[in-house]
Amino acid sequence: MPSLMRLRVKVDNGTGELVKLQARGCLDGRRWEDDSPTTTNTLPPEGLRFLAGEAAMQQRVIVVGDVVNAYPKSGWGVHHDGTPRLVFMSMFKGFERYRADGELMMYRLDNALYGAPPSGHCFELHLVKAFEAAGGVRSRAIPALFSIPTAAASVRAGTIVDDLLLTAPRTPEGERVLRHAM
User: What is the pTM of this model?
Assistant: First the structure.
């Protein structure tokens, strides 16, 4: 699978000055030829309304955060028939390497990478395991919603791919749990 470099530029609208320049290597997902499932870990509007409504009614603390380098933390998973998914890529333009016979070198990816359609699903499986290991229970009605009871506080988590929305009681214990989680 070919790879590409995505460049993101953030400019201050008031001054026009460059604030941040970010380059991210990713796979060219437009060329993906697999029947892999895509992600189901995007919180629908009713899930967001539930979390926000519960937080308002019970005066819970809300924290929103991004899981840094989310996709590379998960593997590629397996195909529907149980065989491991193997993914290979060529290097980014300008960084290609060639074998002595002139053939383009390919690299096996052990971890999921941005840009491939199943990457979000692979991360979802990784995230569900982490929530379940912490005693979390996934909602049957809204798969992107979790309830995680702890000794200190009951935490709710909503996932939007690799972003998390967490709520906990507005108590010192609840706020400590949220700080620890993020």
Answer: 0.63
Which one, of 126, 147, 12, lies nearest residue 70 by Cα? 126
CB under 8 Å to 68, separation ≥6 — which residues? Answer: none
Q: Which residue has the tokens 């690799």?
A: 162
Please report which residue ranges of the chain form alpha helices under DSSP H: 45-58, 119-133, 172-181
Q: For 111, which DSSP code?
A: B
CA distance 173 to 150: 10
8 A C-beta contact, residue 97 and residue 106: no
Cross-strand partners of 137: 147
What pLDDT, in 10s, does the model give residues 34-77?
555 555 677 888 888 999 999 999 988 888 887 777 777 677 77
